[in-house]
Amino acid sequence: MQFTLRIHGEAPDLAAISRELATLDPAALIDIDARGQAVRIATSATEAELRSSLRRAGMPAAPHDLTQLPSECCGGCGG
């Protein structure tokens, strides 16, 4: 699943978020979008699990700040 987390103020600690999320999904990917306004997250974790990981990383997310994106299936894996 893919999510975006809107950023308010200074950039979050991506390393802390990565460490927390890795306990659930070692293959998770995170980065900050080119405009510096959102963290992009790709993970197999559910939204509830992601919110919990963000809280543990010191980055609580308000409900309107975390958005799950529609799936982007290219069909390449045949699944």
Structure notes:
- The chain is α+β, with helices and mostly antiparallel strands.
- It has a single domain, classed as Alpha-Beta Plaits (2-Layer Sandwich).
- The protein is 24% helix and 23% strand.
- It has a four-stranded antiparallel β-sheet, with helices on one face.
- A hairpin with a 5-residue loop joins strand 2 (29-32) and strand 3.
- The longest helix is centred in the middle third of the chain and has 10 residues, at 47-56.
- The protein is globular and about 40 Å long.
Topology:
Elements: E1 2-6, H1 14-22, E2 29-32, E3 38-42, H2 47-56, E4 66-69
CATH class: Alpha Beta
CATH architecture: 2-Layer Sandwich
Uncertain regions spanning at least 5 consecutive residues: none
Number of domains: 1
CATH domain topology:
Alpha-Beta Plaits
Short characterization:
With 79 residues, this protein is α+β, with helices and mostly antiparallel strands. The chain has two helices and four strands, in the order βαββαβ. It has a single domain (2-69), classed as 2-Layer Sandwich (Alpha-Beta Plaits).
Give the key terms.
79 residues, alpha+beta, Alpha-Beta Plaits, 4-stranded antiparallel β-sheet, 4 strands, 24% helix, globular
